[in-house]
Amino acid sequence: MSAAMDTESTYSGYSHYSGHSKKAHRQGRDRHKSPRSKDGSRSEKSVTIQTPPAEPLLGNDASRAEEAQDDNWGETTTAITGTSEHSISQEDIARISKDLEDSVGLDCKRYLGLTVAAVLGLLVFLTPIAFILLPQILWRDDLEPCGTVCEGLFISVAFKLLILLIGTWALFFRQPKADLPRVFVFRALLLVLIFLFVFSYWLFYGVRILDSKDTNYQGIVQYAVSLVDALLFIHYLAIVLLELRQLQPMFTVKVVRSTDGESRYYSLGHLSIQRAALVVLENYYRDFTVYNPALLTASKSRAAKHMAGLKVYNVDGPGNNASGQSRAMIAAAARRRDSSHNELYYEEADHERRVKKRRARLVVAVEEAFTHIKRLQAEEQQKAPGEMMDPREAAQAIFPSMARALQKYLRTTRQQQYHSMESILQHLSFCITNNMTPKAFLERYLNPGPTLQYDRDRWFSKQWTLVSEEAVTSGLQDGVVFVLKCLDFSLVVNVKKIPFIKLSEEFIDPKSHKFVLRLQSETSV
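^ thats the sequence. predicted structure below, dont judge the formating
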């Protein structure tokens, strides 16, 4: 246990020192950037109004500082600073207030829709009961006696209302998965249809039964039964429009992540654009690997290094400054194009070599740790039941032997921001509890998983914005393109209609496969 506590303090110290060193490098770059002219800087307001920049907004400085140092910089660097890392500007306050207003508007719209649907549903279920009870309350003595057929209709109404209640609960009373920007057209049409239908039944009931005080009680009960039957047919129509219509695949959508170009294909049915966007996002969290902005900084830092080595001289005077600089940069970049691919090749080869080296060390360390666990389990079986360690204590006992190798591998592959010490210990104790192998434990770290695999706090995409030239309530069509934007990247969705396939049949005569083999009795010698 003491070894585990020492490693835990080392791990937390690594995080403390690395965070201070990142802030020191970030402040150093800010000091170097301060003498620049206003043309080279961009204010927060301009970024907010214009389209989001192509590079990610989180993790750039830390990744850039990490790229310029060796693998052991977290253990050998100490920075002391008293500057606060939290700051807020007037634009941030305005943006926060706008987000609060939008969230309040969405909540009001959602609760208003739920309230209207609940009130209408309650009216629908109480209407047949009211049709049957009102004559008994208002003119009970004048009613004709209810015979056997009339009493049987009571049972029919009760069971049909029960079936309608269960079907309505299964179809409509679900936990909402998302807040859509517009109303669901088919659901709104069904609500309007139900309202008009119930209103027309009440209008007929008030004019022909309540005003005239009809004494035929069996006919009144039959009228209530007809209402319940019609409501069951409307529920069947709702199932067809809301559930069955979208099951048959009609379109193929290609989803491309704008930063790294990762893409997936999905088949969709007849859906509106906003519901298709919801399906795409549900599949994105499951199928796409987690977005890691640190992996995109290598090429940008290499391009920045090339541009930093260029010197531009203005020989045409101040009037042609911009055009002269751009022409000189383009010419210099063209001259150095032949050498840049060699540098890229050797950088990638060196990175792959270091990743393989760290991976091999990590695999060996984890296998040795799990071997130690098996020895501990064999020793624990000989002890009393009260002296045995739980999986959490066992994970803390073997974690020191693999901590350094795991830290180095995660830094080399730039995954350290997704795995905290607590999450690693939880995963290790989970693997020990379920008697999993070292390869099963390493699967989470050797292969980047989907977004759902990581904690929600580690996600870079929580709130999305749908951008479409067409109305989001319109259906999918061939060639429609819409974009789902979040803070750091966007998903570009291109819709293609599945082509009409025509199959023809060709009949093959079974006798055509038969043949005759004739052998000659005499052969040449």
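Residues 115 and 478 are 37 Å apart (CA to CA).
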